[in-house]
Amino acid sequence: MKNIGDSLKSKLAQNHDLFKSKYEALELRRVALVGKIRSDRAQLEALLKQDTAKARRKAKKLQKKLSFDLRYGYVEGGHIKNEVLGMLTFYNWGRSHKVDIRRHIKFDDGDPNLYLNIYQPKKRDMSKTMRVFVYIHGGGWIGGWPESREAFTTKIAEAGYFVASLYYGDAPAYSHPKMIQNIYKAFGWLKDHASDYNIDMDSIFVGGESAGGHLSAMAGCISTNPAYNAMFDLDERSRHQKIEGLVLNCGVYDMEKALETGFRNINIYTESFCGGTKLTEMPDDFRKQVSPINWVTADFPPTYCISAENDKLAVLTFDFVDKLFDLGVYVDHYHAEGRLAVHAFAVSQGFKICKIAMQGAREFLAGLCEAESDMTK
User: Fold this and answer.
1) How does pLDDT run across 50-105, given as a tens digit for each residue?
2) CATH 3.40.50.1820: does it fit domain 97-376?
3) Residues sharing a CB contact under 8 Å with residue 47, sequence separation 6 or more, in sequence order
4) What percent of the chain lies above the pLDDT cut of 70?
5) Cβ neighbours of residue 183 under 8 Å, at least 6 residues apart?
């Protein structure tokens, strides 16, 4: 460390502290899950010894739960490793250093686990109201952090936006519809603090990758389809939040079709989203509700979609874009090709295809801002 300046040493110490806090929290969660599995196993053995009809019914239910916990624990372990390594390397490559960052701002007094990070230009003129971009991270609904998506969020902020990046909870603890409800609580918090930050919450931009793309598309449907909006118990401060445009990176728009793509661990991801029950075993209304492609209308917000050649979920983006075209919704689509064109590649800004995707997103947002400015003249 002797070859770096004091400011970089301070930054390194902050990053290390952040890493340690994340690692400790994840380890505590892993230990709790192991204890839960052991307890369930002991209970299952006791029920099987009873050999009664009631005990067998309970045992069958417990076996199903134990099966999910074991598979979830295995997948989450690998996911945690990827998230930690990604945060320290690939995910945050190419981040901007021209923005101010405020992390871990609680947006729900009733749940200390939920928070948002704020990114805005360092040389921002606070006398001018700034447009808002809300970012919703991915991670298979079971993980992910705002801190490991800062290449993307800081580049958006650098372009002149107030970016709020949300931690909305992990499944299965925050199974559907808790995640989308938490996102709307964050919208409500931003509305309440609009004057503090001098931001425009009348109409916002929303975006995210993978699972975050799915939740962003859900928000787009909620904002433009009254029937869909009415299905959810949302924060009344933000129930009718207007969304000006969406930036969707390799999202999931048809849950049932996602199961047929062969995407790695898609079954446990969707099962976690459903609270530990397989999507195929959920009621018809539930399966329809969780797929945004079923709820898109001609009023859906203008959208910039990103997909990748080597992503098994890419077909879902093509289906979604095709439907938007059919409905007459403005849509711009960047499909990346080449060996680096993998699932959610654009969270990084370290490669050419990532930068092309970002340039497209920034041009898309600028175009919408310009169009709105022309309409208000």
Assistant:
1) 666 665 565 455 455 544 554 545 455 555 556 655 655 567 788 899 999 999 99
2) yes
3) 55, 56, 58, 59, 62
4) 75
5) 134, 136, 166, 168, 215, 219
Pairwise CA distance, residues 2 & 286, whole Å: 57
In whole angstroms, what separates CA 106 from the centre of its chain?
17
**What is the torsional sign of CA 171, 172, 178, 182?**
negative
Interatomic CA distance for residues 295 and 272, integer angstroms: 22
Tokens of 4: 């770096």
Sequence-distant (6+) residues with CB within 8 A of 115 are 103, 104, 105, 106, 107, 146, 166, 167
For the packed helices 53-88 and 266-273, what is the interaxial angle rounded to 10 degrees?
110
Answer whether 188's CB lies under 8 Å from 110's CB: no
Specify the 3-state DSSP secondary structure of 63. Answer: helix
Tens of pLDDT, residues 16-52? 555 456 556 545 655 665 566 566 556 645 545 566 6
Q: DSSP H helical segments within the chain, as ranges?
A: 6-50, 53-88, 150-158, 178-192, 194-197, 211-224, 226-229, 255-258, 266-273, 284-289, 314-327, 352-376
The b-or-e profile of 111-131 (16+ CB within 10 A means b, else e) is: eeebbbbbbbbeebeeeeebb
Residue type for 52, please? T
345 is written with which tokens? 């590649």
Residue 165: helix, strand or coil by DSSP? strand
pTM beyond 0.85: no
Query: Across the chain, what does the average pLDDT equal?
Result: 84
User: CA–CA separation, 176 vs 180, rounded Å?
Assistant: 7
Question: Which backbone phi and psi does 175 adopt, to 5 degrees?
Answer: -80, 170
Ramachandran bin of 239, using left for φ above 0, alpha for ψ from -120 to 50, beta for the remaining angles: alpha
Name residues whose C-beta falls within 8 Å of residue 143's C-beta, 6 or more positions apart in sequence.
76, 79, 80, 83, 170
